Amino acid sequence: MPKPHGFTHEARPDGTVHITHHNRPATTLNGDRAARFLTEVTSSDPQLVMARWTGNYKRGNERTARDHPRNRR
């Protein structure tokens, strides 16, 4: 599975965090969620953390779904 890429985040002075994916807004985090995100993003792979927090990551079942008879062409 390829690693996620194209994510950026910006922490604003009002305590919100804006996450974008290829320069398009993905999500905005406020308050406690923003603080937990900033802690996690500094201690782990930032791209993977941002993909997980936005819900934009592969779930591992793509190959299974592709091989299903309904999806074959």
Molecular structure report:
This protein has 73 residues and is α+β, with helices and mostly antiparallel strands. The chain is 38% helix and 22% strand. It has three helices and three strands, in the order βββααα. A three-stranded antiparallel β-sheet has the order 1-2-3. Helix 1 runs antiparallel to helix 2. The longest helix has 13 residues, at 31-43. It is elongated and about 50 Å long. It starts with 6 loop residues before the first strand and ends in a 6-residue tail after the last helix. The model has no long low-confidence stretch (mean pLDDT 84).
Query: What profile does the largest beta sheet have?
Result: 3 strands, antiparallel
Q: Determine Rg (CA atoms, Å).
A: 15 Å
**How are the strands of the biggest sheet laid out side by side?**
1-2-3
Tell the overall outline: elongated
Helix content: 25-40%
What share of the residues does DSSP label as strand, in percent?
15-25%
**E-strand count:** 3
Averaged pLDDT: 84
What are the segments in which pLDDT stays under 50 over at least 5 consecutive residues? none
Distance between the termini: 23 Å
* Structural class by helix and strand composition: alpha+beta
Number of helices: 3
Give me the strand/helix succession: EEEHHH
List the main descriptive attributes of the protein structure presented here.
3 helices; three-stranded antiparallel beta sheet; 22% strand; alpha+beta; 73 residues; elongated; 38% helix
